[in-house]
Amino acid sequence: MNASAAADSLAERVALVTGASGGIGGAIAVALARSGSTVHAVGRDRAKLAGLGERASGAAGRLITHTADLTRDTDLETLVRGITEATGRLDVLVHSAGRILYGKIADSPVTQLDELYAGNVRAPYLLTRLCLPSLAAAEGQIVFINSSTGVAASAGLGPYSATQHALKALTDALRDEVNPAGIRVFSVYPGRTASALMKERFAMEGRPYRPELLLQPEDIASVVLNSLLLPRTAEVTNVSIRPMKKSY
Question: Which of 73, 82, 79 is nearest to 125 (CA)?
């Protein structure tokens, strides 16, 4: 299929998904594999990555797992070099990795901001730069899984929100820079999503945790796949998705 044709299929495409040992990243990786893509799923938790492979068993595509620390430049360089040498192409890059730490600004050491910046801003920045030549050759697509705090900050999440605002700025600038090369770029801003981390947050807030009333990782994966499949006459730029019934 010509790269500029309608993106009506993800079969035989090559995708790189970070944060795949997490709920949202894992759901996106499995969905892409089931759509026929060869998916390079990257995470830090070997056990969860192994379970991800089992979930994708029988998929039309392939799911290949990689363990890496995205805050280490050498890990990123080795990862991208290995994928491009093995496949010769890259069609989709999904940034779903990230860190979240809670705390008021008055109580949070600057080292916390440094840690969040390294994982949430610097790592996707460098990974994108490393992947751009391959993505340009394929007229590919880049997805940034941001957060609702990337557009509206709240108390107790200042340092984290600052990194998500920074990621939004990078994404918006990148879109204007690479659209002429045929690369589509879009951001997803999920609200509260069922996960172990969200359970901790509800406990901190003194609220009952009812995951059935929250977004599910598969909901976000569905939004991502539908955006990737949009005909090339259009581009989704920003999608905000929230739980329909509020439990908070």
Answer: 73
Distance CA 162, CA 168 (A): 10
d(CA 47, CA 65): 11
188, 223 in Cβ contact below 8 A?
A: yes
DSSP state of 230: S
Q: What domains lie within the chain, and their CATH numbers? A: 14-190+217-241 (3.40.50.720)
Residue ranges for the chain with pLDDT beneath 70: 1-8
Query: From the CB of residue 19, how many other CB atoms can be counted at a distance below 10 Å?
Result: 23
Q: Answer yes or no: 160 catalytic.
A: yes
Instruction: Specify burial of residue 165 (Cβ count, 10 A radius: 0-12, 13-18, 19+).
Output: middle
- Active-site hit among 160, 189, 209, 248: 160
